[in-house]
Design goal:
heterodimer, A: mainly alpha, 2 domains, 17 helices, B: about 375 residues, alpha+beta, Immunoglobulin-like, Cytochrome Bc1 Complex, Chain D, domain 2, five-stranded mixed sheet, about 40% helix, transmembrane (chain B), Cytochrome c oxidase subunit 2 (chain B)
């Protein structure tokens, strides 16, 4: 009798031990792997950021030479983008998309396993350069040619980027196939939850631009090792071509890192306002518009390369247009809160901080779009402040909000609310103390990617460094809270949050290893 | 200039004198000293206040709603999901605001894109090198070549590498040769690069143009006020990106003419010096000075280089035994590496003395053939070349 039960369990439950994680094809396991991997990368990239801020605490070179400094700046960017934010969103996609559309798993589970396990391989290759003569890449995450073509160990960098790109493309194909084919009966596209929508759009962006990045790094490799001159003016090549190719990838990439955040924020704000999301379909149209516009604004990163006037005007106007759909989203969130019945649990705090601070990042973004003024802002700390406002209290806060929001569903335990709030306030204060003063030094003319700087910038840089240490160290608290909730905690109900909408809240907490083996029926009454 | 001493660190942060220092207030874009820079500043402030106004309205509504509709104050939520009039309004109104922003921005941009040469104006070619700027006055000739010089950082390394010396007022913003230009004169900077991409940034003129190999970018400016203006390189160009400042000295027209004359006279002096008989001690003294400012950044003060990046000079076979090759490398550079040609950067005397210095230092004199290089060797190399 008991043997029968055991084999029954074995069939439906996860394998035991490490091999479970190596061979798993379960979307929840793979989601967990992605999330832990991204957290590890977040801490690694964060440690590098603290190294950077420690060096910048005061003028002069105290802790490292400029070669090491450039390596930290470069690796911080690469790790946070390709190892931190993107895998975190893929992890959330893996956990949530099947549960939100009522599917049993992702459509292509074995490929799902492979696309995760490529990532540790890629980052091992990238980070292994730290132990080589010549060291890690030090040309900035944008790897502009011809600086990068003459750099040591560039082949490792190129190979790592290729593997990350393959991983992203496979992940995206999986997302698209799953969403297109595996929605529960009755779940039409326009009824689909916004996180799923945001990922559908993101996946298309990834498939469109990852090959462009692959092309850029391949051309770089050819220039470095095979005697071509794509980007070498002395051989008839064009260094500006590199920037056009890179930013044709790079700008959609920016939205790859923010669209899923829009989806997450929409869910959380609606839940804790106990109100349906305002303007569901206009949110979808806004995201689609942002995604389409992202392909025609890339050269606003290049206003100072000496493009002709008409090009500068076109890219200025196109960039300004993005403010319209982005504004619609912010107004929709405010309207969702309006006349709600709001409580402020940790996910809601992070979500509201996201709306406010992301909007501040949007304001500086709009200022940067104004080409004549951009001649002053370009490549100063004003830009650093801008993109950290949209990426840290933007993308990263949304990921933290998502973790707090769905953690009870994943683990079956409530996290420690008091600790969560403490983590929020420390992060909120830390982020603003770090990045707000960077607007000041940027406007006053401090260039970015400087290991050392003039004395007039000393005071605000010291403040910024203190903020960075506060923010960085508070993330250890985040780790503690998560581990604590995984181990134990108040048992969560299936619905978890009063006012939560969506199919994932109809299954038990923790979500069983297999969910929706029989698709749920979506009717007019289903709260989505 | 207030500057935080290492020992005081955090403690200083909490003290009043520090907070009252003027640098805390240095939080905005400079107005600058050209008509264009003033207009850019005006545009920047206009955008800033528009953003503040939008922020006040949006965040005002948000914070009001957050407070008013908290659960303890509002038990039951409304359940509206749409309001078409409102949605049309918050699409149309931002569009109008954006158009109003785009108009002044576009017309100012058009004005900044006037790159035509003007009567009485001067053209200065700006060439970015790792990690220094070269300036060529295209209208001024010395012999048959334009007046040209390099502008190197002069902040001594003990101010930033070892942090032993007190940092000077113009820390990292001081150079050996400033670009001297006349005021009230249209100046065209023709900006390009010799190696990787750099960017020539002078905030006070609202000029930032990338220096790109194979391209010539133009920035035109007319300076209204005499003074010394300091800027930076703003495109990551490798290790010493932070150590190649831009310094422009704007002077009245007659001072400018005097300066031009003195530069031309100095250039003629050099020809005379190559004929002189140089002693080893003289060459070594001048060579060390040049080595420390031009070479030590990569090859290091002790000649050991940085493995994987910059080869060692101490004990290098080439430096020890191959004098002709040694001269050739300094004159031509090494293609595909960061070793650039110094033929234009150093005159014959400087070139000979720095080569002699490397061949005689760090034990190289005992280990190798110990041959020194005199200015005549360089002159001969150049003649052979042509």
């Amino acid at each position: 009798m008991s043997a029968v039960v055991e084999s029954h369990d074995h069939h439906h439950g996860p394998k035991k031990g490490l091999l479970r994680w190596l061979f798993t094809t379960n979307h929840k396991d793979i989601g967990t792997l992605y999330l832990w991997f991204s957290f590890l990368m977040f801490l690694t990239g964060g440690a590098m950021a603290m190294g950077i801020r420690a060096e910048l605490f005061e003028p002069g070179l105290q802790l490292m030479d400029p070669i090491r400094y450039n390596q930290l700046v470069t690796m911080h960017g690469l790790i946070m983008i390709f190892g931190g934010v993107m895998p975190a969103f893929v992890g959330l996609a893996n956990w949530l998309i099947p549960m939100q559309i009522g599917a049993p798993d992702m459509a292509l589970p074995r490929m799902n396993n492979l696309s995760f396990w490529l990532l540790p391989a890629a980052f091992t290759i990238l980070l292994s350069t730290a132990f080589m003569e010549g060291g890690m890449p030090g040309f900035g995450w944008t790897f502009y040619a011809p600086l990068s073509t003459n750099y040591p160990n560039i082949a490792y960098f190129v190979f790592a980027i290729h593997i990350m790109g393959i991983s992203s493309i496979m992940g995206s194909i999986n997302v698209i196939v799953t969403i297109m084919n595996m929605r529960a009966p009755g779940l039409s596209l326009m009824k689909m939850p916004l996180f799923v929508w945001s990922w559908l759009i993101t996946a298309y962006l990834l498939i469109a631009v990852m090959p462009v990045l692959a092309g850029a790094v391949t051309m770089l490799l050819m220039d470095a090792y095979f005697g071509t001159s794509f980007f070498d003016a002395a051989g008839g090549g064009d260094p500006v071509l590199f920037q056009h190719i890179f930013w044709f990838f790079g700008h959609p990439e920016v939205y790859i890192m923010i669209l899923p955040a829009f989806g997450i924020t929409s869910h959380i704000i609606s839940t804790f306002s106990r109100k349906p999301l305002f303007g569901h379909s206009s949110m979808v149209y806004a995201m689609v518009s942002i995604a389409v516009l992202s392909f025609v604004v890339w050269a606003h990163h290049m206003f100072t390369v000496g493009m002709p006037l008409v090009a500068e005007l076109f890219f200025m106007w196109a960039t300004m247009l993005i403010a319209i759909p982005t504004g619609v989203k912010v107004f929709n969130w405010v309207a969702t809160i309006f006349k709600g019945s709001i409580t402020y649990e940790t996910p809601m705090l992070f979500a509201i901080a996201f709306v406010v601070l992301f909007t501040i990042g949007g304001f500086s973004g709009l200022m940067l779009a104004i080409t004549p003024a951009d001649f002053q802002y370009h490549d100063t700390y004003f830009v650093v402040a801008h993109f950290h406002y949209v990426l840290v209290p933007g993308a990263v806060f949304s990921i933290m909000a998502a973790v707090y929001y769905w953690l009870p569903k994943w683990t079956g335990n409530m996290y420690d609310e008091k600790m969560g709030k403490l983590h929020f306030w420390l992060s909120f204060i830390g982020v603003n103390v770090t990045f707000f003063p960077q607007h000041f030094v940027g406007l006053a003319g401090m260039p970015r990617r400087y290991a050392d700087y003039a004395l007039q910038f000393a005071e605000w840089n010291a403040v910024s460094s203190i903020g960075a240490f506060l923010f960085g160290l508070s993330q250890l608290l985040f780790l503690y809270i998560i581990v604590k909730a995984v181990m134990a905690g108040k048992k969560a109900t299936p619905e978890v949050w009063d006012g939560a909408r969506g199919l994932e809240w109809t299954v038990d907490s923790p979500a069983p290893y297999h969910t929706f083996e029989v698709p749920p029926k979506i009717t007019e009454q289903t709260k989505l | 200039m207030a500057y935080m001493k290492k020992e005081l660190g955090l403690l200083t942060l909490l003290t009043l004198p520090f907070i009252s220092s003027a640098d805390w207030l240095d939080v905005n874009m400079p107005v600058g000293v050209t008509d264009i820079s003033e207009e850019v500043f005006g545009l920047h402030m206009l955008m800033f206040w528009i953003m503040i106004a939008i922020g006040v309205v949006v965040f005002g509504v948000l914070f009001y709603a957050m407070w008013k509709y908290r659960r303890s104050n509002n038990k039951t939520a409304a359940d509206f999901e749409e309001n078409h009039k409102l949605e049309i309004a918050w699409t149309v109104v931002p569009t109008i605001i954006l158009i109003l922003m785009a108009l002044p921005a576009s017309s100012l941009l058009k004005k900044m894109y006037d790159h035509e040469a003007e009567e009485g104006g001067i053209d200065i070619q700006v060439i970015g090198w790792q990690w220094k700027w070269q300036y060529k006055y295209l209208d001024e000739k010395v012999g048959d070549k334009p007046l040209s010089f390099f502008s190197n950082l002069t902040t001594p390394s003990d101010q930033y590498e070892t942090n032993q010396a007190t940092k000077g007022e113009n820390y990292l913003l001081e150079v050996d040769e400033e670009v001297v230009v006349p005021i009230n004169t249209p100046i065209r900077f023709l900006i390009t690069s010799n190696d990787v991409i750099h960017s020539w940034y002078m905030s006070d003129f609202a000029v930032k143009q990338d220096a790109i190999p194979g391209f010539i970018n133009v920035a035109k400016t007319t300076i209204n006020e005499p003074g010394v203006y300091r800027g930076n390189c703003t495109e990551l160009c490798g290790e010493r990106h932070a150590y190649m400042p831009v310094v422009v000295r704007a002077v009245k027209q007659d001072e400018y003419q005097d300066w031009l004359q003195s530069k031309k006279d100095a250039a003629e002096q050099v020809a005379f010096l190559t004929e002189k008989d140089w002693t080893l001690a003289e060459l070594m003294e001048q060579g060390e000075e040049i080595y420390n400012t031009r070479c030590a950044a990569c090859h290091q003060m002790n000649g050991a280089g940085i493995p994987g990046f910059y080869p060692a000079l101490a004990g290098s076979d080439l430096v020890l035994y191959d004098k002709p090759k040694h001269i050739e490398i300094l004159m031509e550079g090494v293609r595909g590496s960061q070793m650039q040609s110094f033929a234009e950067q150093l005159n014959e005397v400087e070139m000979a003395s720095v080569i002699t210095f490397t061949r005689q230092s760090w034990g190289n004199d005992r280990a190798g053939d110990g041959e020194i290089v005199i200015p005549k060797d360089i002159v001969e190399y150049k003649q052979k070349d042509s």
